[in-house]
Amino acid sequence: MTIPFMAEAAAIADRLVAIRRDLHMHPELGFQEYRTAGIVADALNALGYEVTTGVGQTGVVGLMAGAQPGERTVLLRFDMDALPIDEANEVPYRSQTRGVMHACGHDAHVAVGIGVATLLAQHRDRWGGTIKLMFQPAEEGLGGARAMIADGLLQHPAVDVALALHVSSGHPVGTAVVRSGALLAASDRIEIVIHGHGGHGARPHETVDAVVVAAQVVVALQSIVARNLDPEEIGVVTIGSIQAGMAGNVIAEQAVLRGTIRSFSEPTRDLLHRRVREVAEHVAAAFGARADVQTPRGVHATVSAPGPTAVVYRSAAALFGADQVDTTYRTTGGEDFSEVLAAVPGNFFFLGARNDARGLNAPHHNPRFDIDEACLPQGVAILCDAAVACLAGADRLPG
Q1: Taking the domains of the chain in order of start, what are their residue ranges?
Q2: Which residue of the set 33, 87, 139, 339 is catalytic?
Q3: What ranges in 321-370 are assigned the alpha helix state H?
Q4: Which of 1, 147, 268, 284 could form a disulfide with 56 if both were Cys (CB 3.0 to 4.6 A apart)?
Q5: Is 209 in the active site?
Q6: Catalytic: 139?
Q7: What is the pTM for the complete model shown?
């Protein structure tokens, strides 16, 4: 099967691979993507886009108007940052920056973005309205999308529809996940400080042991999802770090617990936040200690709107076949494109990039993460096809 743009995307596949591998060799952490942003800006300028740099610190925005009549604006997001991971892959394009690696596929996203920019510029005669390209810094937990929005990303012109993809090593190349509603979860932090009363390890009766209290809090927190949450809802409460004490014969006066809360809906999110606070505070009080609880909110759930999702589904199904497009999968991972989708209707989808036969199946954020680069032109074709359709109003559902 094929869709408009696929043949041309395939024709530039070698260039997409070269861009991706160059970026992979020179990864940059969030808000430090100066080299990457420069490559993007140069490419967009050469294609005739109106380019703005420094949006949200290191982000790049490209604007282009089509040659056909049209009033709509479609935004396409491509994140640029890498992770603080030392790469373990022995490949010619291995990271040359010690301790920094594109272990989530954002190098592929930038390559796809430049490919999309190229084909849409070459075919301005096919579409009307405005394409707005969002090359985003700092997706990995640092708030890059929020920073770009604060700098006016969604205005001048105002955005009607927003689209984005993420390569997935959990799904085979030649497949996609396109789901209406929440695809990724809201991601919030937990920090609980237990204040006890320290003392000698041989005289526990004279103390309030912060370690014992922390242990009881961790166990009690696991009852929230099991006993407070509707079984038909999904939520996660995880404590991933406990820090307390310095010596085996000293009872710790303080313990610090850090973790995460994940949820797909705001009512569930509110419930989990409330119960984490109540459980921690009351368990601590029962042992004579005090718990200071902070649960700062992070990214929202990544929620795709029905209309744009239907457009992306049609593009992906036309390319891969309907049986290769999953509409039910979702994950409690988080994604800050949710900040855009909270303000603008759109779609975020996963593009399969796994190849078991070639050993390209390590999970994201793993030092051996890599992708099957055959996905790059596929991503270009799907996004170009969906963007042009949305510019024409195909995302407007009847009624």
Answers
A1: 6-184+301-391, 186-294
A2: 139
A3: 338-341
A4: 147
A5: no
A6: yes
A7: 0.95
